[in-house]
Every structure is written in structure tokens, then in C-alpha cells.
Amino acid sequence: MKIGENARVVLEKRYISRDEKGNATESVEGLFRRVASAVAEADLSYDKNADIAGAEEEFFDLMTSLRFLPNSPTLMNAGKELGQLSACFVLPVEDSMEKIFDTIKQAALIHKSGGGTGFSFSRLRPKGSVVRTTGGVASGPVSFMKVFNAATEAVKQGGTRRGANMGILRVDHPDILEFIYCKADNSDITNFNISVAVTEDFMRAAAKGEDYDLVDPHTLKVTGRLNAAEVFNRIVEAAWRNGEPGIIFIDRLNRDNVVPGQGEIESTNPCGEQPLLPYESCNLGSINLTAMLKEENGTRSIDYELLGRTVDEAVHFLDNVIDVNRYPFRKIADTTMATRKVGLGVMGFADMLLMLGIPYNSDEGIQAAEELMSFINTRARAMSAALAEKRGAFPLFGESVFASGPKYRNGTVTTIAPTGTLSIIAGVSSGVEPVFAYAYIRNVMDNTELLETNPILREELERRGLYTDGLMRRIAAEGTLAHIEELPEDLRRVFVSAHDVSPEWHVRMQAAFQRHTDNAVSKTVNFPRDATREEVEQVFVLAWKLGCKGVTIYRDGSRDSQVLNIGKVNREKPDEGAGLESEPANGIRPRPRPVSLRGVTEQVYIGCGKLYVTVNYDEQGICEVFTNTGKHGGCPSQSEAVGRLASIALRSGVSVEEVIRQLKGIRCPSTIRQKGLGVLSCPDAIAKVLEYTEKAIRDENGQKNDSKATAPRRKEPLKGDESAAFDPHRMRFCPECGAAIVHEGGCVTCRQCGYSKCG
């Protein structure tokens, strides 16, 4: 197998089967064998003499050669009792209390099984509407989004993956302004990505500065009018602030609805790339494009023969997944079987361009995308037709847009999905995104620094005799090769990072893939921190003009902190003298940190590694707490924040007992999945080290607050679970391993350990 060490760590941590005690019950090779065997079984449904062993070997090689990988639920659940293999679902939210909570229950079952869900809240009557049956007043879509969010938070503690949701509201809903700003506070509705469903009429009205109608979905009556340009500007403003909401071009989703007689497409999955009818699910998978290259006479090119064979095998695989899947409930099974949608996509596109010597932000790069995806889509459609000859067309084919032409086994065949964890397993760039960083330095315990380098860049630099650790450290510090003038110009032109690519090129690349994709393209347009609102507006307009089905943006650093204080957002920088030394309004000021302190450092086991907690004290008692993480430790930013706040509280006169009481017992979502652990989270670990140190000092010396007190050494480290839960939107570091997170494919992903906000 071609599985690298980092990929093996991710697979062992997140995918392989374990017993009730958490012990592995299969190897990485066994994982792929389990999946291949389970998926091959579907062939028997169509031919009792089918060569199951041959199909299993074909699928096993397809995955272990890293030519193709299916979505995460298939890797996790195929051949196991749960057996739920779909990544994404869309559920309806209808305008009655009973049906709303039926949907919440259904969503909980899906999240428990490892899937993500999309919802349109556009059917709900607006806030303040009279409910005639009860005489009450409707609370509106946003209030129910918060109910869904809370349910997701509860369910994800016991599920196999984090629950993720998409929330959509039509731009003509009377509550649209409340929806646009519902995530202005990064701590609100954290289990949702949100998008505004905009119509073609709205976009044209915005371009002309015209008003448009707001329509009550319950009465279908016009309840008011807004200026389209002003609403569009508010969407832009909100997205500029923290990336929410995105935009879905809802008319385009329905233009490509293959069975319009079954109703309108209202929503997508959590990353925006898979439009689905209510109760539909979709099975996704991605081809590794770096494995589709050949070299002849020193020149690399795309091996279209190999790519074609890989597409055929992948479509066969995904069609089988539909049959062996164990759906969360019957309605989803029936609706999914009726259209048999699959979504074959790609990963490693940026790496492929690097290997071909093609800049991502170039006409040559756009042309490569068009030719590549056109081939994949055409070949996948041909394979679907071949399967239809043997197995029959999808059940609703007769009323589909294809009814007058060749029969197809699948209503859709291609989707460009985010591939955060899958691309880590394959060791390639994510989806169709540019490379996020070519080098970075990872800090581990004992002040050790590990230099991580993109292998394609390293190979090229070594070939040219240019590679040095010093150069890579400079690239890591600058985040790009663009301004390192001693490097050859042709090298800098090809090896561009996400922030070297202008927003226009991001959108042009997305549009190139969209032109040859049945469903949609998941991609994030990355902006530098100093990007303007006007630049965000230009991207939204360009995405509309170039035929994209949606667009998501992220401005670097825009989610690092809260944005509640609207009145101060335009301040250039904080007051120069602001800080701990200024006099607070209530007169409380922490005492200065002593120059010399005594202390003890405890090593604590948490589920994702080690946490080192240092507690320092002087003659007045414990006055300082700080943390550090091991190589695979928890979330350093959050732990550091807890330590700083605890320290300032202790030096301001707050008792150590009160600090312990506030931190002790906090738990993170995945605690339930790990047994035999002594702490519940990083904050809980800090509290217990404080408690232990305070008690040890007192017991050892017979008194409290003795400057000569020393804490005895512990022989065994504390054990704990995974790091404490927090909202990844606020931070720039992974909550599980501490590496930098990236915004790509409409999601938040850690390229180091495989953590993904979208599951």
C-alpha cells in the first residue's frame, strides 16, 4: 500500500474499527479490505454468478493504490453493523411544530450515523406571524435554527463524526435581514454553515439598484419590499466580517434538477456542493489526480487511459454503495434509490498542476481544469449508461430530463466535494483548491521545532540544488515563495499558494470545474486580511456572471475574535497603552508577576496526545498557570487562554478554589467515546492539576501559602480525553492537534491530523 505515515496516523485515529475498550480490531489494510468486500457484495443483486472476489480485488486496489477514495462514512462504516455510508442528506423543514421536531429527530439519527444535513428554513412563517391554531406568535426561522443547533451539539457527543449542518434561507423571505446577521457573533449557531438562496431576479435587481418583494411563505402574500442592492451589500458586509453567509444561486440548482416533477431543490449539504431534494442522500468519492500522471522522455502528462479506467471503477463502486448502504430511515432509502445520485470528484488538482509545471492562476491552469473535468464527466456518464444496460436505469428515469435519450443508472454522476481528511490520507492537496502552504514549522514540547515541507516543492528544489532548511524556514515565515527573489522566476510563478492566487482566479477556477460538473463545486475563495468589502462584492458578482452555483469566501483572520462590538470595528488599532497596567473601571488590578517563582509541571494524558500544565506559586500562593502541548497535543490556543485568565484571576485575589470550581467538570464532545480517562477536557485537566498542587503543597508542609513549599512529583501522568470543545471559527489552530487550520472547500480542515468542522 502507498499509505504514508501521517495518513496511517489519521486512519488509525479516526477510521479503523475498535472494541468497547478502544483497542484496534483491524489494521489499516484490514480497513480497506472490509470496505472492498462489503461494497463488492452489491454485484450479487444483479448477477447471482457475479465474480465477487474479482470485484473485491478491484475495489481494494482502487483504494490502496490511492487512485480513489470514497467519502468518510463509507470508510468508517462499510461492512460494520451501522452500515450508513452516505456523507450528505437534505431534510425538509415544514411549517408546523410537529414536523419541525420530526425533522430534528431525523437529523439526530443522521448525525449519529456520521452524516451531515442540509436544511432550507424558507418554508417557515416569519417572526411575529400569528399562529391561528394556538393564538401564539411565530418565532421565525432563526430561532428554530438555534434549536437545530442545540440538538446537533448534544448528539455529536456520542456520534462517530461531528454533526454539521447547512442552513439556507431564500432572499425573499421576510426574515432575511435577521438571517444575514445571525452568525455575526462567532459563538452563535456554531454547528451550521449558512447561505442565502438568491434568485436570478434578485441579482439583476441588485445590479440595477431596484426594489424586490418579500413573500410570506405561509400565505404567499407580499409583506414588504427591500432594495436589492442594499440587501446584497449587507450580505457582502457580513461575509467580509467572518465568511458567513455564503451565497447559493438557487435558480441554477433547480435548472439542473434532473427530476423537477418531484419538487424543487431547496438546500444543499453542509459544504454547498451537493444540491438535493428533500430526503435525498448522496454518496461521494474523489479521484487522486496526482496518481493519474505518466512520464515519457522526461515529460509528465495526464494518463487518460488510466484516468478513464479509474473513473469506470469509481462509478461502479459508488453505484454499489447505494445498494449496500443502510439508510437512517425508510423515506431516505426510497428517495435516494429513486434517483441513485452519485458524486465523483477529484483531489490533488493543485499538486497535479505543480507536477506538470502549470501555474494555478493562469489560462493554462483553467484550460487544464476544463479538459480534465470534461473528460471525467463524460466518461462517468458513459459508465452510468453501461451500468443501466446491465442493471436498469434509475427508477425515475422516465420522468427525468433524460427521458428522451440514453438510459442512465444514476441521476447525477459528478460533484466536486471538499476532501479535507481524504486528501491527507492520499497525501495530496485538497479538492480543487490551491496549495495552502508549502512549508510550516510545527512547535512541539521542549522547544523542538519540526519543519514540514511540501514534497513536490522539496523535490524540485533538490533537483535544482536549491534546497536548504534555512530557505524552507523563510518560506514558512513568509507563507509564500512569491517575494523570495533569489528563487528562479519560473519556480515562483508555478509554486503559488492560496493567498498568491487573486480572488478572481479562485472564482475562474471554480467556474471552470462547474461547467463540467453535474452537481456543484465546493471551494473557498481565500482573501488576505486587508481585503476590502468591494473585493468581496466583486467575487460574488463574478461568481454569478461566470455560472457558479454558489460561492463561499474567507478573509484571513476574520474569525479570530468576536465581532459583537460593532461601534469599534473601524478602529485602526487598539490604544497603545491599553493592557493590564491600565487602571480598570472597578479599581481591581492584578499584582505584578514576581520575577522568581517556584512551580511544578504535570504531564496529563488527553485523548489526542499530551498536555503539560505548569503551576507556579510564591509566598502568597498559586499565582500562575500555563500550558504546553506535546507533538500530538490538544488545542494550544484555547489552553493558553484558560491559563492566562486563571493567572490574572489568581493574581487579582480570586481564590484558587474558585478557579478550580469554574474549570472543573468542563467536558468536550468526544469524551463519551473514550473510556477509562481521568480528566474530561483541557480546562478540567488544568483544574485538577491546580487542585492536586494546592493539596500537595498543603499536605507536604502542613500549611497553606508557604514560600518554601514544594509539590511532590507524581509517578504516573493524569489521563484524559480529547481536548475541550470550542468553536473552530474563532481560532486559527486545530482543536485536536494544535496545527494551523485552513479554510478550503467550504469547510475548516486541519491538514495535519484530519480534523474537519464538516465531519
Total count of domains: 3
Measured by DSSP, the beta-strand proportion falls in 15-25%
- Coarse shape: globular
Q: What's the N-to-C terminus distance?
A: 25 Å
Q: Strand pairing plus helix content: what structural class?
A: alpha/beta
- Outline the biggest β-sheet: 10 strands, mixed
- Which spans have pLDDT < 50 for at least 5 consecutive residues? 561-585, 703-709, 711-715, 718-731
Rounded to the nearest angstrom, the radius of gyration is 27 Å
CATH architectural category of the largest domain: Alpha-Beta Barrel
Within the CATH hierarchy, at the fold level, what is the topology of the largest domain?
Anaerobic Ribonucleotide-triphosphate Reductase Large Chain
Give the total of beta strands: 26
Mean pLDDT level: 86
Name of the CATH class of the largest domain: Alpha Beta
Helical amount: 25-40%
Number of helices: 23
